């Protein structure tokens, strides 16, 4: 996968699959699958570190996880999230953050929103670093949005979303994430843009889909928004295996002779 393939997939009406990943061992599994690209999302603050928002993620943490994912998936196309405020402190700090994430092994960066940092997006793109946009529900703005809610519900808000999407394409983004918007809006934006849209809770009309790995594996018992499909009962499966280990330790059937040195 390269940035050129994103446009090619869209032109050939071929859906793009993206999955989040934050560590080496799951990256190695993903590398063996047909999934097109990996997002080292700042959602790792929540899924990996137990925070209740993405705000605690910083550039150092994102770079650390990006490097781990790169070691696990040496050939994957990796997009690294620019964390909260990292691109809002002026051009030089923004470029230093981009540099850390790219040097950690990303192929591209993603950043939330458009208003107020269109110039920075263009500068990153002009510097030779591919940028993925992200509009709709932008979790770094959760306090301003008043919670994790579906965005673009009114005609006016939907128009604003469309304008932002077009502006991101014009700024040079190679793709754009649409998060938690009504399916008709997701479809309308996808039809308008020449770059692909990657939806999460944005309906079937998007050019691709992304889910958080732990959500789709059913590891995230507490988090069940409408857009998540669980493809595995991960929590129960792992719990059963752990209890089996515990039982075999306590009944002394583990380790067996073949698991011991003579
Ligand atoms: N594990 C995980 N998965 C994610 O998809 C995810 C994260 N973490 N962290 C960052 C953001 C936060 N996201 C969220 C969080 C909550 C809802 C949610 O509760 N949605 C409501 C919609 C309510 C409405 O109708 O407005 C739902 O019930 O689906 C949606 C997206 C998506 N992202
Ligand atoms: C949910 C996706 C799009 C994301 O930005 C993340 O995982 O941080
Ligand atoms: Mg994110």
From TrEMBL:
Its EC number is 2.1.2.11. It is found in: Cytoplasm. GO terms for biological process: methylation; pantothenate biosynthetic process. Its cofactor is Mg(2+). SUPFAM superfamilies: Phosphoenolpyruvate/pyruvate domain (SSF51621). GO terms for molecular function: 3-methyl-2-oxobutanoate hydroxymethyltransferase activity; magnesium ion binding; methyltransferase activity. Signal peptide: none annotated. Keywords: Cytoplasm, Magnesium, Metal-binding, Methyltransferase, Pantothenate biosynthesis, Transferase. Pathway: Cofactor biosynthesis; (R)-pantothenate biosynthesis; (R)-pantoate from 3-methyl-2-oxobutanoate: step 1/2. Binds 1 Mg(2+) ion per subunit. Mg(2+) binds at residues 42, 81, 112. 3-methyl-2-oxobutanoate binds at residues 42-43, 81, 110. It catalyses: (6R)-5,10-methylene-5,6,7,8-tetrahydrofolate + 3-methyl-2-oxobutanoate + H2O = 2-dehydropantoate + (6S)-5,6,7,8-tetrahydrofolate. One of its GO terms (cellular component) is cytoplasm. It comes from the Bacteria. Its main location: cytoplasm. The active site is at residue 179. Homodecamer; pentamer of dimers. Catalyzes the reversible reaction in which hydroxymethyl group from 5,10-methylenetetrahydrofolate is transferred onto alpha-ketoisovalerate to form ketopantoate. Belongs to the PanB family. This is 3-methyl-2-oxobutanoate hydroxymethyltransferase. It comes from Spirochaeta isovalerica. The gene is panB.
């Amino acid at each position: 996968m390269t940035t050129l393939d994103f446009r090619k997939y869209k032109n050939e009406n071929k859906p793009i699959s993206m999955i989040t990943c934050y560590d080496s061992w799951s990256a190695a599994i993903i590398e063996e699958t047909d999934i097109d690209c990996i997002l080292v999302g700042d959602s790792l603050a929540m899924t990996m570190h137990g925070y209740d928002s993405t705000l605690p993620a910083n550039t150092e943490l994102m770079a650390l996880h990006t490097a781990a994912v790169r070691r696990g998936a040496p050939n994957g196309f990796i997009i690294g999230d620019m964390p909260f405020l990292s691109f809002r402190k002026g051009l030089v700090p923004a470029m230093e953050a981009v540099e850390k994430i790219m040097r950690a092994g990303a192929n591209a960066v993603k950043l939330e929103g458009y208003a107020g940092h269109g110039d920075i997006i263009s500068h990153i793109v002009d510097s030779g670093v591919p940028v993925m946009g992200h509009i709709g529900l932008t979790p770094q703005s959760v306090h301003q949005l008043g919670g994790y809610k579906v965005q673009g519900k009114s005609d006016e808000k939907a128009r604003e979303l469309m304008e932002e999407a077009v502006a991101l394409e014009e700024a040079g983004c190679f793709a754009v994430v649409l998060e938690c918007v009504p399916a008709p809006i997701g479809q309308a934006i996808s039809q308008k843009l020449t770059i692909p849209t990657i939806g999460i809770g944005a309906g079937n009309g998007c050019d691709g889909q992304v889910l958080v790995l732990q959500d789709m594996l059913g590891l995230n018992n507490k988090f069940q928004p409408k857009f998540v499909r669980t493809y595995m009962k991960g929590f129960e499966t792992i719990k059963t295996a752990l209890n089996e280990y515990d039982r075999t330790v306590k009944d002394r059937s583990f380790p067996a002779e073949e698991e011991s040195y003579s």
